[in-house]
Each structure stands twice: as structure tokens, then as C-alpha cells.
Amino acid sequence: MTDNRTWLVTGAGGMLAQDVLARLAAAGIPAVAAARTELDITDPASVGAALAAHHPAVVVNCAAWTAVDDAESREDEALRINGDGARHLAEACAESGTVLLQVSTDYVFPGDAEKPYAEDAPTGPRSAYGRTKLAGEEAVLTALPETGYVVRTAWLYGAGGGNFVRTMIKLEGVKDTLDVVDDQRGQPTWTADLADRLVRLGQGALAGTAPAGVYHGTSGGETTWYGFTRAIFEQLGADPERVRPTTSAAFVRPAPRPAYSVLGHDRWAAAGIEPIRDWREALTEAFPALLAAERG
């Protein structure tokens, strides 16, 4: 039986939030879409008013500062959203008995591992963005030890916003060859797959079958940006040999990128939920909508 209590989704204009809202609608779960103009998570009064007005059973926090490079020079601003904003939500949820699903990132890890990071692996962010997201994680887990859920994800793509897949679709049409980094490993993850797990996790929280704490919401398998791009070209029917491998040194950015950010998925078993499928399978299913979104 569907629990028909209302959910509230912050950052509702974003790529992930759009898919969360679509998944909730498909499940027949009433939801409030709270974009930045309706709910400013950096303002405790705004957060309190939203929870008082809607009485949500679950809050899914998709609101975030995601400009990784800009955070290096504007860490205080990023922290207000990623750290303080999450804390305001967690404290309000603690007062109202509301479940909170906090979306986090692989950047909380140092990115130098040689095997997948377990959910309880030591953190150690090397970027301002990672530090601010870790502050949000800690705030949620501290304020909500029984009803707080942190779901780390990475390499997100979807039809509802700009992302790596859509950029590569565009570049394939205008570039003879593409040089793409081959020394960063991760897990391309479709926002629709992550949205499904977030909804199922929230349902498990309400039913008492999903333990609170940290989960890793990334696809199975692993690849590099170079390998990912070759797969995108294959989906386009383009020659993958037009994609050439290069190193991170060719694309120096203000924020350091993790060389290895593959995440382990063992915790899902405790909630009775299977981990997300292999990234290649997901890309194949997602691609028609991504292509349509990019080419209009």
C-alpha cells in the first residue's frame, strides 16, 4: 500500500529533483516542488515555514551549490547552502519528526583509493566543494540519527539539465576528434535511477525497513571519462575512435578532481533495496530522452 503522506523536494528546478518528482508522481505520492524562490534553505525561517505549511513526511534535499570550481574561491557561499542549508533542514526535520534524505557526493573522499569506497570509509575531501558537502552530511547525521539519510552520488546525467552526456552529444556534431580524460575513474549515474532509489529509500524509512545513515547512490561498474565518451559515441552511431585519451594535466581546473571515486554499494542490502544497475545498461535506456532533450 502506498503511503500517501506528502513529500517535499527542495531544489525542484534541478536535474535530479525533476526526476524525483516524476518518480513520486508515478508512485502516486503527493509532493511539493520547492524551488529556490519558494524555499531558501539558507534561511531557517523559510525552512520552518515550509515544513509548517506542508507537513511533509519526507524531505528530499536536492538543493545544492554544485559549481565545483567556483567553490574554491567562494567557499563561504557554498558552505551556506551545502552545509548550513542542510543543517537548517535537519534541525527543522528533527523538530517535526520528518525523514530527511540528503543528497551528497563522492567528493567527500580524497579520491586516491584502489578499491570502491565503502559507506563507512574515512572521508577526506580535497576541495572546497567536498568540504562543504561533508559539513552537510555531518549536520544531517548529527541532528537526525534515526531519520537522517545521506545518499552519495557522482557523475550524474539526465534529460532535465546540462551534463556531460548532453555536452558530448553536442560536441560530437561539431568536432572531428575529442580529447577526453582517461585517468579519472567513476560511475556514470542516470538521475532517473537515483531518483528511484531515493523514493524507495524514503518509503523504507517510513515503513521502518531502511536503517538511517549513509548509502551510495551510483551505478554499478566503473569507467573513465574517456570510456564514458566512447560509449556515448557508440550510442550515437559515431566512430568511438574519434575519442582520444588524455590526462587530467591537459585540463587544469581550480578544484582537484578525484582520480578514483568509485563507490561501494553494500549498505542497500540492509534496506532490502538492490543497488543501481550497471552504468552501460542505464545509458542505453536513458539515451533517447537525452538525445531528444539536446537536439530539441
Automatic annotation (TrEMBL):
<dbReference type="InterPro" id="IPR005913">
    <property type="entry name" value="dTDP_dehydrorham_reduct"/>
</dbReference>
<keyword id="KW-0560">Oxidoreductase</keyword>
<dbReference type="Pfam" id="PF04321">
    <property type="entry name" value="RmlD_sub_bind"/>
</dbReference>
<dbReference type="InterPro" id="IPR036291">
    <property type="entry name" value="NAD(P)-bd_dom_sf"/>
</dbReference>
<keyword id="KW-0521">NADP</keyword>
<dbReference type="InterPro" id="IPR029903">
    <property type="entry name" value="RmlD-like-bd"/>
</dbReference>
<protein>
    <recommendedName>
        <fullName>dTDP-4-dehydrorhamnose reductase</fullName>
        <ecNumber>1.1.1.133</ecNumber>
    </recommendedName>
</protein>
<comment type="pathway">
    <text>Carbohydrate biosynthesis; dTDP-L-rhamnose biosynthesis.</text>
</comment>
<comment type="similarity">
    <text>Belongs to the dTDP-4-dehydrorhamnose reductase family.</text>
</comment>
<comment type="function">
    <text>Catalyzes the reduction of dTDP-6-deoxy-L-lyxo-4-hexulose to yield dTDP-L-rhamnose.</text>
</comment>
<feature type="domain" description="RmlD-like substrate binding">
    <location>
        <begin position="8"/>
        <end position="287"/>
    </location>
</feature>
